[in-house]
Amino acid sequence: MSESPEIAKGRGRTRTLGTSLGFIAVAVAIVTVALWFRQIDQVAIPENRTVFVAFFLTAAALGVGAFVAGTRWFGGLAAVVAIFLGSFLPYTVAISRQEVGVAAIQVGDMIPRFTAVSDHGEPFDSEDLHGHIVLIKFFRAHW
Amino acid sequence: MSTDHPEEIREERGAHGLQAIMLSDPDLVVTDAFGLRNTGYHSAPPGDDTEALPVPTSLLVDAQGRVLWMDQVANYQRRSGPEVVLAALRKHLD
After folding, report:
1. Is there a contact between A66 and A21 (Cβ–Cβ < 8 Å)?
2. In principle, which of A40, A105, B45, B60 could form an S-S bond with B69, CB 3.0–4.6 Å?
3. Nearest-angstrom CA–CA distance, A3 and A53
4. Considering CB atoms only, which of B40, B53, B70 is closest to A141?
5. Contacts with B, A 89-118, CB within 8 Å
6. Mean pLDDT in chain A?
7. A101-138: per-residue pLDDT in tens?
């Protein structure tokens, strides 16, 4: 049973729409990723990341929309990339929670005495800090 | 203070022109003494052999060794900028 030319034409139109959606999705995703990494590079990630997350999710949703509408293979490829990129940041935001145990130091506590090695390989003793007001930063390493 | 090895810190010091005393705590001995080991999501990059990381924390300590102020992030993608630390310095040291 063959479908009528009108139905085939209609399907062609939605596939064009789907393919376009795929490309729009990947464009939104790439621009958002570029802006996000630029913010990271400048150590300027905003306190409120809702707008960024919204743009990432929009890219992912457009990618899904491309498949719903039906797309040609290259539009589908673009949509897959958009869904992957668009899901990435919301995923890392969701899992990035940091927690300390109950024994964590608090305001008013005396710092424990400690020794460590400096980047020049020299031993360091926290007793040397005595008599000085100091800012100690614990950070997550060089990457 | 970080889990970086001294040679890694040396590279970063050169790259960023850092002036502070930089200490290496690869086995988290000092991190654990302060109770700052992250028990939440561990997210070292693939290939990094660090077993855990500290929760990013800033501590302002007075001349006797008492913590005057501290700042800790609940989400590692957010760090307090210099303005937060400078505001704390002004508040506690003026």
Report:
1. yes
2. B60
3. 43
4. B53
5. 92-93, 95-112, 114, 116-118
6. 86
7. 777 899 999 999 999 998 888 899 999 999 999 999 98
The pTM score is 0.65
Taking only residues 44 to 83 of chain B, the set having a beta carbon closer than 8 angstroms to any beta carbon of chain A reads 44-45, 48, 50, 53-70, 72-79, 81
Whether residue B77 contacts residue A92, with contact meaning beta carbons closer than 8 Å, is answered with: yes
This complex has an ipTM of 0.85
d(CA A122, CA A120): 5
SS (H, E, C) chain A: CCCCHHHHHHHHHHHHHHHHHHHHHHHHHHHHHHHHHHHHHCCCCCCCCHHHHHHHHHHHHHHHHHHHHCCCHHHHHHHHHHHHHHHHHHHHHHHCECCCCCCCCCCCCECCCCEEEECCCCEEEHHHHCCCCEEEEECCCCC
Retrieve residue B2's tokens: 């970080």
Tell me the C-alpha distance between B89 and B67, whole Å. 12
Contacts for B44-50: CB closer than 8 Å, 24+ residues apart:
B44/A141, B45/A143, B48/A141, B48/A143, B50/A141, B50/B3, B50/B26
| Residue A112 in tokens | 């424990």
